[in-house]
């Protein structure tokens, strides 16, 4: 844990922009939990030279942490992130290849063909998918012997989300993402679907007998800009959620190929 914390401190010092630094600090605990789980999975071999495909590399935050821990990450994201000057400069400085992809549905396969990766990180992407992903998952499973993929996604059932759900329902405001968001935010920017622990287990069972998914939750926190009272209530509900395994802030999932699947 000490090495992971040192990597996070070092990484934080590399992020200076008004966009990159706040986002890193907001998600710092998730990056730490991810790094700890990756380090634990590869405790025997270590992270030195570990080839990681970071799908959804965003601002290269987690790729940077992996690089500082000795791994060899390769980023992959949409051009709105990969073409940012700060991302280009950081990737060049740390020698992190960061590729542009227009569509997971049509473009991902060509990045999986060489099957040279030891691990795929699929972080905070699941909720953005708007196509049938079966073929994508089968390609990812085949690309990483023995099919090791780390998935992270927000938990749909953390308690702080429930007041908003209920308020929209009783006011007949609908459910799911809001109409104004559909019309003002690019398609890949939406959380079209958020999952519960039960749903995610069912999701991978439906993909077929080859898929083995170890689904679990981790505690987290949320930033809130609003009234002190609303912020206090939100913090209280998140604190309660973090004490209850099915309601914790974040869902992690290790996906592997099932023996004999």
Question: Could you describe the 3D structure shown?
Answer:
This protein has helices spanning 2-12, 20-26, 28-41, 61-68, 79-82, 85-94, 104-107, 109-112, 134-143, 162-170, 179-184, 197-206, 228-242; strands spanning 51-55, 72-77, 98-100, 119-123, 149-154, 211-218, 250-257. The protein is of the alpha/beta class and 261 residues long. It has a seven-stranded mixed beta sheet, sandwiched between helices. α1 (2-12) crosses α4. The mean pLDDT is 91.
Any idea what the radius of gyration is?
A: 18 Å
Strand content: 15-25%
Count of DSSP helices?
A: 13
Oligomer: single chain
Question: In summary, what is this structure?
Answer:
This protein is of the alpha/beta class. 43% of the residues lie in helices and 16% in strands.
Sum up the structure in keywords.
seven-stranded mixed β-sheet, 261 residues, 16% strand, alpha/beta, 13 helices, globular
